[in-house]
């Protein structure tokens, strides 16, 4: 079992930045990712990282503005967000451990473990 706890959300203005964090109770998982969901919309994959190496994956809409990283010593996954847009207001969720040994199709979202989410609100 893996417990995930997100933090770092908040209210920012358009163009602002945030750094989200996801503390994991156990770090021996194959893949970790960030997803978001706005009210009335489907959950959307944002970024993922293969923990067995340095492979990272991003949704096209966030490439160049979001950066996923991890601190193995702290068992923590991060998402640095820059140049936020109003339509990116959502609950952001951390997810861990896919039921397979690769991470490249992370966007399907079939992770075994999920956090409770942290709210990001972007105002104009």
What does this structure look like?
0% of the residues lie in helices and 48% in strands. The protein has strands at 4-7, 10-13, 18-24, 31-37, 44-50, 56-58, 66-71, 76-81, 90-96, 113-114, 118-123. Strands 2, 4, 5, 6, 9, 10 and 11 form a seven-stranded mixed β-sheet that branches. A four-stranded antiparallel β-sheet has the order 1-3-8-7, with no helix packed on it. Strand 5 and strand 6 (56-58) form a beta hairpin. The chain starts with a strand and ends with a strand.
Summarize the structure.
The chain has 124 residues and is mostly beta strands.
Topology of helices and strands:
Elements: E1 4-7, E2 10-13, E3 18-24, E4 31-37, E5 44-50, E6 56-58, E7 66-71, E8 76-81, E9 90-96, E10 113-114, E11 118-123
Parallel strand pairs: 2-11
Antiparallel strand pairs: 1-3, 3-8, 4-5, 4-9, 5-6, 7-8, 9-10, 9-11
Q: First CA to last CA: what distance?
A: 40 Å
- The helix-strand sequence is EEEEEEEEEEE
Give the helix/strand class: mainly beta
Strand content: over 45%
Descriptors for this entry?
124 residues; mainly beta; 7-stranded mixed beta sheet; globular
């Amino acid at each position: 079992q893996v417990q995930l706890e997100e933090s770092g959300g908040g209210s920012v203005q358009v163009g602002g930045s945030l750094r989200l964090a996801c503390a994991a109770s156990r770090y021996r998982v194959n893949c970790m990712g960030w997803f978001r969901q706005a009210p009335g919309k489907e959950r959307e994959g944002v970024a993922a990282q293969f923990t067995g190496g340095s492979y990272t994956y991003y949704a096209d809409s966030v490439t160049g503005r979001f950066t996923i990283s991890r601190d193995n010593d702290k068992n923590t996954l991060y998402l640095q967000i820059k140049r936020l847009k109003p339509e990116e207001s959502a609950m952001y969720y951390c997810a861990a451990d896919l039921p397979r040994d690769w991470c490249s199709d992370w966007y399907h979202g079939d992770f075994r473990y999920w956090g409770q989410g942290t709210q990001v609100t972007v105002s104009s």
